[in-house]
Amino acid sequence: MTRPSITSHKSVGHHILVIDIGGTHVKFGYLKQGLPLSFSHIIATLQLRTRDSISCLVNEIKRVISETGITPDVIVVTVPGFLAKDSDLVLHLPNIPEMSGIRLKTELVRRLNIPVTLERDSVLALMGECSHEPTLQERPVLGIFFGTGIGAAMLINGQPFRGDGWALEIGHMPVFNDSSYGDSGRQLNVEDYASGRALVAIAAKYKQPVDDIFAIRHSDTHLSSELDAFIHHQAQVIESAIALLSPAVVILGGGVVSMKNYPTERLESLLTLGNPFAAGHISQEIRWAKHGWKSVLYGAAIFNR
Predict the structure, then answer these.
(1) 184 and 217 together in one domain
(2) How far apart are CA 121 and CA 119, in angstroms?
(3) In a domain, 4, yes or no
(4) Is the pLDDT assigned to residue 6 strictly greater than 90?
(5) In this structure, are residues 102 and 116 in contact, taking their beta carbons and an 8 Å threshold?
(6) Is 298 a domain residue?
(7) Lowest-confidence range among 11-15, 32-36, 104-108, 163-167?
């Protein structure tokens, strides 16, 4: 943990504690008057995979507040899964199934006596990526984030598209082929082919550290072939979303595409070749996310204005 640049909850300014629950890590950060503080605290998501995951999260929040001396005015928590229209009930959280069916906002407010806001992680990440360019608020912008899973969000006139509640859970779209069911009989989805979990499986198969997998991809022709197929799958996910949603701008981010030696040029070339509207000379502007996990902090600042 690194300490923030201010150390007392009595300091002047509106403070927001942002908790970004990801598939691999849970990150904590503070905002003061809309700007991130020089503070970070990270724990493994596995720590929340307990019978009483809420108590574990509450204890970690209390620890952060105690060690920083900053009592937040509001807490913003990201939900990497299906959130009900009431922005309280967690419908389905694949990476932390113990939280599924819990009224997370209600429980956190009851135990902490601090206002809490829940939002899908991809929504805040996309809002944060767009926050430094006001012109993007006037255009349909699609964000796709390849992490442990695959998250997506779309902003139309600066507002998130939600469908009838949650929307754009792209990672859960089913795949259709001769082996579209796993060993457990579960319908496979695009996360089984194009997410960080799929990449971890490739690394394990070749007994290589996942963090170095792209750097060493040319050392083994079979590994190189599998990684190229992985990039093809990611391109197909993006192309499918473009065909369905017709965004003006597509922002790509997440831990996978931020990895060392990730082949960004290869993905861009595949998107150019596979653009579903290429015949009509229609193209989308492809951008890469710039702010890493801090995009969630910038998004939280906008969300709580």
Answers:
(1) yes
(2) 6
(3) no
(4) no
(5) no
(6) no
(7) 11-15
**The pairing of beta strand 25-32 with beta strand 15-21:** antiparallel
Q: Which of 112, 158, 152, 156 is nearest to 240 (CA)?
A: 152
Instruction: Let me know whether 204 and 141 are in one domain.
Output: yes
Count of CA atoms in the C-beta half-sphere (13 A) of 103: 6
Q: Which domain does 273 fall in, by range?
A: 129-288
The DSSP H or E segment spanning 241 is: helix 221-245
- Cα angle, residue 54 at apex, residues 71 and 56 outer, rounded to 5°: 75
Strand 74-79 with 15-21, pairing: parallel
The answer to whether residues 162 and 40 belong to one domain is no
Domain count, the chain: 2
In a domain, 303, yes or no: no
- Name residue, tokens 């904590």: 28
Q: Which of 22-26, 206-210, 274-278 has the lowest mean pLDDT?
A: 274-278
> Residue 186 — pLDDT band, cuts 50, 70, 90?
confident
> Look-up: residue for tokens 């992680």?
121
221-246: per-residue pLDDT in tens?
A: 999 999 999 999 999 999 999 999 99
Same domain, 81 and 153: no
pLDDT of residue 234: 97
Residue 114 and residue 72 in contact, taking contact as beta carbons nearer than 8 Å: yes
Q: Please say if the pLDDT value at position 12 is more than 50.
A: no
Closest CA to 61 of 85, 35, 30: 30
CA 57, 62, 67: angle at the middle one, nearest 5?
130
CA nearest to 19, candidates 46, 43, 50: 43
Report d(CA 101, CA 119) in Å as an integer: 16
Q: Smallest Cα–Cα separation from 22: which of 121, 113, 132, 117?
A: 121
| C-alpha closest to that of 20 among 52, 53, 61 | 61
Using CA atoms, how far apart are residues 209 and 215, in angstroms rounded to an integer? 10
Same-domain pairing of 271 and 159? yes
Question: Is there a domain that residue 7 lies in?
Answer: no
